[in-house]
Amino acid sequence: NPQVRPCRRRKLSSCSSVERSDSVTSPGAGESRVLVLNTGGTIGMTLHDNVLAPKANALVQSLRKLPILHDELYAQQTSLYEYYGSENSLVLPLSKSNKRIIYTIMEYSPLLDSSNMTTDDWGRIGKDIEKNYQHYDGFVILHGTDTMAYTASALSFMCEHLGKPIVLTGSQVPIYELKNDGRDNLLGALLIAGQFVIPEVCLYFYNKLYRGNRVTKVDAGSFNAFSSPNLAPLATAEVDISINWDTVWRANTTAKFQVSTELNRNVGLLRLFPGITSLSVRAFLQPPMQGVVLETYGSGNAPDNRPDLLAELKAATDSGVIIVNCTQCLRGTVSASYATGKVLMDAGLIAGGDMTPEAALSKLSYVLAKKTLDLQAKKKMMAQNLRGEMNIDLEGAKLCLSNSRFIQIIAKSLSISCKEELEAIRDALTPPLTCAAARIGDVDALEALKEMGSNLCLGDYDGRTPLHVAACEGHLKVVQYLLSHGASVYVKDRYGDTPLSNAVRFRHKDVVKLLRKTGAHFSRDQLEEAGTELCSLAASGDLDGLEIWCLAGADLNRPGYDGKTAVEVAEAVNKKEVVAFLVQLMGKKSMPNGGG
Ligand code: ASN
Description:
Elements: H1 5-13, H2 18-25, E1 30-40, E2 45-48, E3 51-54, H3 59-64, H4 72-77, H5 80-84, E4 89-91, E5 99-112, H6 119-132, E6 138-142, H7 148-158, E7 159-160, E8 166-169, H8 182-195, E9 201-205, E10 208-211, E11 216-217, E12 226-227, E13 235-237, E14 241-243, E15 258-259, E16 267-271, H9 278-285, E17 291-296, H10 307-318, E18 322-327, H11 339-346, E19 350-351, H12 357-368, H13 375-383, H14 394-399, H15 405-413, H16 419-440, H17 443-451, H18 466-473, H19 476-483, H20 499-505, H21 509-517, H22 524-540, H23 543-551, H24 566-572, H25 576-589
Parallel strand pairs: 1-5, 1-6, 6-8, 8-9, 16-17, 17-18, 18-19
Antiparallel strand pairs: 2-3, 4-5, 7-15, 9-10, 10-13, 11-12, 13-14
Helix pairs in contact: 6-7, 7-12, 9-10, 12-13, 16-17, 16-18, 18-19, 18-20, 20-21, 22-23, 22-24, 23-25, 24-25
The protein binds asparagine.
């Protein structure tokens, strides 16, 4: 209400005490506003009949009496209650960075133990944030710890194009008790939500701020209740609050914030265990089930000697159920490194990377509710990193070059969307990508790069082409592929090396033969210098080396720097087997097919 604001200002300047006036109006002092949604949880519970249950209409009154969480004097001086028209607005003492955080508590009715929460409650929280988004700088959600990781994950997906911090917190011990963690947790959450533009749904607990979709509750009896096994905290709040800005998600959109409260309820979590029956798996996957997180062993493994089980999974994915493979391990990622993992991919499962089961489940619920997407698009979305919930597995991305995924990921992370920019990126990345593919012998990746218009003949900053690299590594198939797709055997890198000299150096006979067949040859200078090399190989008895130089076209009679030939050197050092070998090689060479 614009008419009310001047009234607060008058009150500010009429403050009489110098000290107070300083603390209230010191230059640079800013105010920020945080909305606190109190949904319940232990933080606001009291004992009834020896068990803890939420107590309604009690939290604000009790916070008002805690000086670390409310500065009553400032509230009076600034007519806080009149200004905000409610007794539910409180104000923190001045922060270290001279900020006043004014927070308004909206209490839900009924307050819930978080074990009682459902997707409807997530929707309600989402709607309240959407309704109030413009009026606050940040949001704190007081929530029970038991299902906080689920709610945090769900909200992270539901909140699309988020630009402000949403921080969930709660406690293990009620705030009304003498020794409790509620006060610190609430204070930390408010300080972060009120002072830092972290465009994420986060979870603050025991001095740490985590990405909400990366946490899991790991301890029922300690203040340190949460862990984020696969992602370092976004911030730590000790003497100072230090934000790990490199990890914080970067807003990469020009679209407006909105909350998608449509959620699919036909989702579930299924944990594998030794001896699980195919009957129970079948029962679990029955309609109306549409999305399942399968919690597998280790790096995403399941028995590969259980055709009955695999058949049930395959039947479900064939009929359109999306099954995401997540590991039962606290830390680590799903990868297709074992046969026992590959069988699940063959059964149509989607690799969940390092997502927590909580994140994977709520992501399924969010993605499956997207009415405009078909099944394929939903599956694709499940494998994408939407809100920092998973690390894109670069090993996997390499394997996925067949659909240009790697380039797309890079382009997306750079927020590039127009065609020209995308092409510029592609061209800049082509040499390192093609060389990397050549190094690991990945013909599919090269094919994919070629399909997207990449020139496979371009060299990197050292002028080394994929053909140089494949020749060094001895990847015959890649050499073959490159030669039949425009690669030149004559290109020299900045050191003057050709693919042929590389293949000779690393002694890949097959590659040398193929390059020679294609017309590769040593230069005059190289052939002249070869004499000295042959002599030294002969002196050391290196038959393999002699053979490869011979295959590459070197003249075995070429004398070294001192005028002696390799045969003469071998005789001089009495290496009879070398002499015999050279004679044999020379004999072969004079044959019609050149011995190659
Ligand atoms: N049962 C409580 C809840 O999740 C646990 C807690 O908040 N510490 O609501």
